[in-house]
Amino acid sequence: MTDTTELIRRNASFAAGEFKAGLGINPSGNLMVIGCVDPRVDPAFVLGLEQGEAAVIRNVGGRITPATLSTLAMLRKVGQANQTGKPTGDWNLVILHHTDCGMTDLAAYPELLAAYFEITPDQLPGKAVSDPQGSVRVDAGIALREVSRDSFLVSGLVYDVDTGRIDTIVAPTRGHRTAP
Ligand SMILES: [Zn+2]
Fold first, then answer.
1. Residue 86 CA to ligand 1 centre (angstroms)
2. Which of 31, 123, 145, 180 has a 20 to 30 A CA-CA distance from 10?
3. What's the rounded Cα separation, in Å, for the pair 32 and 9?
4. The pTM is what?
């Protein structure tokens, strides 16, 4: 087990070294990443993110569920409340799924999955939980429909846990929705 004493020791090193003071609450890269909780797919590492560059949402599978949409709506309000120093220009919404996702193991628990997506079990095939290329297409489609506006680009990526490489499944696409 990595214990808390060890974590506090590492933090002391961080605070004395890499810590950057004065970062803004808005991500400096106008970047939002939605990814899986899997320890192998931390966006900070696999996408080489800098401190303060991206807002990252992680859940089981990196899925766009109703809860994810609520989180995005809340973050939009936070952004509206913090206009000072806010970067201008397009936003990049990146959905990052991966191979060997533990979500595949949950296919045996359709009730659990259906509750997660707030759908009925018979609708689960539409969520492609056993196919990362399919699932990232499904979620990019939801993002383009539900959360993106003209100023949003949506991408769907799949990370390969065996090679460390990423395939672009959905190239950056401008959203359809124009409402605020
Ligand atoms: Zn996963």
1. 32
2. 31
3. 30
4. 0.94
Ligand 1 centre to CA of 36 (Å) is: 5
For residue 155, give the CATH number of its domain: 3.40.1050.10
Kindly state whether residue 9 falls inside one of the protein's structural domains.
Answer: no
**How far is the centre of ligand 1, averaged over its atoms, from the C-alpha of 38 (Å)?**
5
Q: Count CB neighbours of 165 within 10 A.
A: 10
| Closest to 47 (Cα-Cα) out of 27, 26, 73, 66 | 27
Total structural domains within the chain: 1
CA 69 / ligand 1 centre spacing (Å): 19
C-alpha to C-alpha distance for 178 and 180, rounded to whole angstroms: 6
Distance CA 158, CA 120 (A): 26
pLDDT digit string (tens) for 93-114?
A: 999 999 999 999 998 999 999 9
